[in-house]
Amino acid sequence: MRTLITGASSGLGAEMARQFAALGHDLVLTARRTDRLMALRDEILKGHPTRQVDIAALDVLDDDAVSDVFRDHAPLDRIIVNAGVGSGKPVGTDHRKDNRQIAMTNFVAALSQIEAAMELFRSAGRRHLVVLSSVAAARGLRGGPSIYAATKRGVAHLADGLRSEMLHSDIDVTTVYPGYIRSEMTADVDDAPPFTGDTEPGVRAMVRGIEKRRAIVFAPVLPWALLSLILRAAPLPLLYRLTPPLRGE
Q1: Residue of 148, 177, 180, 240 with catalytic role
Q2: Active-site residue 148, yes or no?
């Protein structure tokens, strides 16, 4: 199995790389910060010297670069669309450039990655596309997280549509909904939200579901599969209480 992971220089992407390597996968790791990719490659090869680990500099906002990197490292059995950025600022508070950057990175750039992946996969036999969404996609959130939640809902719907289209093909499409997992993206949040888990077990749940090629993966399953249902059905006053704003909002 040869797996490409975008946004692999830190956080969930880096930990997925470690765990997939331990399962015997060869890897293609991409990110903007190649120094971190090189350090991660060295770490993985030290523990698993028979693995093949390629790295490539990639800014996912560069459509042509995304296509080139994916094509240059083909054949690929699995592509994991993981690159993304975190919470923004409340809408209408003079942070439109920051919020637009989040929207471009988390949705438009994800679309570019999915386009490039599907161009390779449609004529390549059995392949696996994995798209990282978030439990935040369950419902619109207030304050700064509203932009992040909206982008993650968008990529989840895109993956749903592709999964329906590919139902009778050799291409599997998995949508991963990580819960609150400690990572570099959440390092600047003073008070961790309820049910926040550690990176390694959280990613282990993700990897387990991905390896089984499940259509939908909540990580971990409990409590997030249940809480997502509650968030979708909650009336606004209850939603307001369940989703307090993060620091500075």
Answers
A1: 148
A2: yes
How confident is the model over 94-153, as pLDDT tens digits?
889 999 999 999 999 999 999 999 999 998 889 999 999 998 888 777 787 889 999 999
Q: Domains (ranges, CATH) in the chain?
A: 2-242 (3.40.50.720)
Instruction: Give me the DSSP letters along the chain.
Output: -EEEESSTTSHHHHHHHHHHHHTT-EEEEEES-HHHHHHHHHHHHHH-TT--EEEEE--TT-HHHHHHHHHHT---SEEEE---------TTSS-HHHHHHHHIIIIIHHHHHHHHHHHHHTTSSSEEEEEE--GGGGS--SSTHHHHHHHHHHHHHHHHHHHHHTTTSSEEEEEEEE-SB-SGGGTT-SSPPTT-B-HHHHHHHHHHHHHTT-SEEEESHHHHHHHHHHHHH--HHHHHHHS---TT-
Average pLDDT score over the chain = 88
pLDDT band of 242, cuts 50, 70, 90 = low
